[in-house]
Design brief:
The protein is mainly β. The chain has one helix at about 5-30, and strands at about 40-45, 45-50, 60-65, 70, 75-85, 95-105, 110-120, 125-140, 145-160, 170-180, 185-200, 205-215, 220-225, 230-235, 240-245.
Length: about 250
C-alpha cells in the first residue's frame, strides 16, 4: 500500500482551518448565542465565546481553555480562536481574519492565519467567499510539521433561507493549495470535484482532490458520496485504499 500520510495530513489541516469558521458561525448565528450578540455566551461545558462590538474591526474570541476540552463534536480542543471582522458576514466586501493563540485540535497545534472575503453573489446567485490560508500544523507526538497555503472559493449552496440556523448550511469548496509535508517534500493540491461541507458535520462529506507530491506519482483523495463520517479513499497507481481521517 502507498504512504497515505500526505492525504491524511492535508485532510487534518483543511479540517482544522475550516472548522475555525464553523465555530465562529455557531457563535454568531447558532441557537446558543444570546439575541443581543453583545453578551458572553457558552457553547458546551468548557467553551466561552465573547463578542466585542465596541472597536473596529469587531472581535469574536472563542476560548476553549488551557486544558483539553471535549467539544460537542467529540474533538478535543484547547486555546483560542480570534476572529476580527470589518462588517456583517453577509455583506459583500466584508473581511474576516482568523488567528490562533495556543490553539490545539486533538493535541495538534494550529498556527497561521485564515482570511475570508465576502465576494457577493456568483452566476448561480449564491453568496460566495474567497478563503486564503497561510498555516502550519505541528502534529502531536512529534509527528512533524505540515504547512498549508491555499486559496479556496466557498459557495453557500444550501441554507440561505434560514440564515440564523447554521447547522443546515452547505458549502461547495473549490480551489488549489500548496505547501510542505512532514517529510519536507513540497506538494500541490487541486480540487477536481467540489468538496461538500455541511456545517453540522465535522467531516467533508464528498468531493475529490489531486495531491501531487515532489518525486511521487499522483494521489487522489476521495471523500465519498455524502455520508457524514471520517472515512475516505486514497487512489494511487489505479488502486484504492480506505483511510480513516484524524
Amino acid at each position: 500500500p502507498p504512504d497515505t500520510s500526505p492525504a491524511l495530513n492535508n485532510a487534518l489541516a483543511e479540517a482544522a482551518f475550516d472548522n475555525a469558521t464553523q465555530w465562529s458561525d455557531m457563535a454568531m448565528a447558532g441557537s446558543k448565542l444570546k439575541s443581543t450578540l453583545t453578551d458572553t455566551v457558552y457553547m458546551g461545558t468548557c467553551v466561552l465565546a465573547t463578542l466585542d462590538l465596541t472597536t473596529t474591526p469587531y472581535t469574536l474570541l472563542i476560548d476553549f481553555g488551557s486544558a483539553n476540552c471535549q467539544c460537542d463534536d467529540g474533538i478535543y480542543r484547547r486555546g483560542k480562536i480570534i476572529v476580527q471582522f470589518t462588517g456583517s458576514y453577509w455583506a459583500p466586501g466584508t473581511v474576516l481574519t482568523y488567528t490562533f493563540d495556543d490553539y490545539f485540535v486533538n493535541d495538534n497545534q494550529v498556527l497561521g492565519t485564515r482570511t475570508v472575503t465576502n465576494k457577493g453573489r456568483n452566476g448561480s446567485n449564491n453568496l460566495w467567499w474567497q478563503t486564503v490560508v497561510h498555516g502550519t500544523i505541528i502534529k502531536a507526538n512529534n509527528g512533524g510539521t505540515f504547512t498549508l497555503n491555499s486559496t479556496r472559493e466557498h459557495e453557500w449552496s444550501e441554507g440561505e433561507s434560514t440564515p440564523f440556523v447554521w447547522w443546515d448550511d452547505v458549502y461547495l469548496i473549490t480551489g488549489t493549495a500548496n505547501g510542505t509535508n512532514t517529510d519536507g517534500k513540497t506538494y500541490s493540491i487541486t480540487i477536481t470535484s467540489p468538496l461538500q461541507k455541511k456545517l453540522n458535520c465535522e467531516w467533508i462529506k464528498s468531493g475529490t482532490l489531486d495531491i501531487q507530491i515532489q518525486g511521487l506519482p499522483l494521489i487522489v483523495l476521495d471523500y465519498g458520496s455524502g455520508a457524514c463520517d471520517n472515512q475516505a479513499t486514497v487512489i494511487f497507481n489505479g488502486q484504492s485504499y480506505p483511510i480513516t481521517l484524524d
